[in-house]
Design goal:
Helices cover 42% and strands 14% of the residues. It is an alpha/beta fold and 382 residues long. It folds into 2 domains: 131 residues, Aspartate Aminotransferase, domain 1, CATH 3.90.1150; 240 residues, 3-Layer(aba) Sandwich (Aspartate Aminotransferase, domain 2). It has a 7-stranded mixed sheet with strand order 2-8-7-6-5-3-4, sandwiched between helices. Strands 9-10-12 form a 3-stranded antiparallel sheet. Helix 5 links the parallel strand 3 and strand 4. The protein is globular, with a radius of gyration of 22 Å.
Length: 382
């Protein structure tokens, strides 16, 4: 199996797993228990991981709150921050973008509905980019939160975060960015950002661990209550092995980001050049979505016009790739991201997301191209 689905999840890096293992069987103390050495050791490991996460995004460690993943972090950011703001201001307005991850869209819709606020969902261009000018025009005196993801999980499109932050710096709206796909692949910082979310399993760490990074002094109601963990921001016993794994993954990413970016970009270019060659040889129109935008270095979103993508990937059988966001696969609905970009339903059904990773090889790329080419050749001649 050739694994081209790293945007859905990455394998745990061996060095990350090695760092985690002792905290299952040797250093298994509860970090909330400060009465003995076992608790101290676990607590120290959590704080070291907090420092590693913060260092990767140029933040202060005390701003990092560990969660069960990016989805929980997003809900904390939206619901936990919006409620007190609305109570204080007696009115509210939210802004987000049509191509956001469903976790953001659903949380924003729920917050708006529960609090009686208005919600503006901004369009994107054909490459999936939102205009900072559109954000500026959408802002009102009541806008309390604007959410724009750093990089899209389906197309890899990187949004103009610095320009958006500049627009919002002149407004009291908070800026939330879901940086789940960007952290570890691109330089990400908290400059101009009020709230940032990330997940371990997108950067070679374990599933079930993530973080919310919130600007100092930001008032936030906890979603989970019943304990004083994480400075009172999130109750519950900390997942020490997972947190250690997230910290280790961030440390590895910081050390290898430049090399990873260079290598993954070269692989993506090799793969996309191969797709162009297949299109010419097979007579199949293959469209690279968001090709003109800045993208993640390892993401290719390709439409095979006239082809049913699910049938193609299932029939090939040796390529693990996605025909939709992993969070929505099986629901039968087309990609909301492609729809927002103006891709019609038929082309949406012919679209595959290929997302390579740190361990993808040139041989795997060539094998994948050969398998796709063979399938297309049979499909065209049938």
């Amino acid at each position: 199996m050739i694994y081209f689905d790293n945007n859905a999840t990455t394998p745990v890096e061996p060095t990350v797993l090695d760092r985690m293992l002792p905290f299952f069987s040797e250093h298994y103390g509860n970090p909330s228990n400060t009465a003995h050495a076992m608790g101290w050791a676990a607590g120290e490991a959590v704080e070291m991981a907090r420092e590693d996460v913060a260092a990767l995004i140029s933040a202060e460690p005390e701003l990092v709150t560990f969660t069960s993943g990016a989805t929980e972090a997003i809900n904390m950011a939206v619901c936990g921050v919006v409620d007190p703001l609305v109570r204080a201001r007696k009115a509210g307005h939210l802004i987000t973008v049509a191509t956001e991850h469903k976790a953001v869209l659903a949380a924003m819709e729920r917050a708006a509905g529960l609090a009686g606020m208005s919600l503006t969902v901004l369009p994107v261009d054909a490459a999936g980019c939102v205009s900072p000018n559109d954000i500026a025009r959408a802002l009102t005196p009541e806008t309390v939160l604007t959410a724009v993801m750093w990089a899209n999980n389906e197309t890899g499109t990187v949004q103009p975060i610095a320009e958006i932050a500049d627009v919002l710096s002149r407004h009291r709206s908070l800026f939330l960015t879901d940086a789940t796909q960007a952290v570890g692949k691109l330089p990400v910082t908290m400059e101009g950002i009020d709230l940032l979310t990330l997940s371990a399993h997108k950067l070679y760490g374990p599933k079930g661990t993530g973080a919310l990074v919130a600007r100092r002094g930001l008032r936030m109601d906890p979603l989970m209550i019943g304990g004083a963990q994480e400075g009172g921001r999130r109750a519950g016993t900390l997942n020490v092995p997972g947190i250690v794994g997230l910290g280790a993954a961030c440390q590895v990413a910081a050390e290898h980001m430049e090399r990873d970016y260079r290598d993954m970009l070269a692989r993506r270019d090799r793969f996309e050049a191969g797709l162009a060659d297949l299109a010419e040889r097979s007579g199949t129109e293959i469209i690279l979505n968001s090709a003109e935008a800045e993208r993640l270095p390892q993401t290719t979103n390709a439409t095979f016009r006239g082809i049913k993508a699910k049938e193609m990937i299932a029939s090939i059988g040796t390529i693990a790739a996605s025909t939709g966001s992993a969070c929505n696969t099986g629901k039968g609905a087309g990609s909301h991201v492609l729809k927002a970009m103006g891709v019609n339903a038929a082309d949406g059904e012919g679209t595959v997301r290929f997302s390579m990773g740190r361990h993808t090889t040139s041989a795997e790329i060539d094998q994948a191209l050969e398998a796709i080419g063979a399938w297309l050749g049979e499909a065209v001649s049938a």
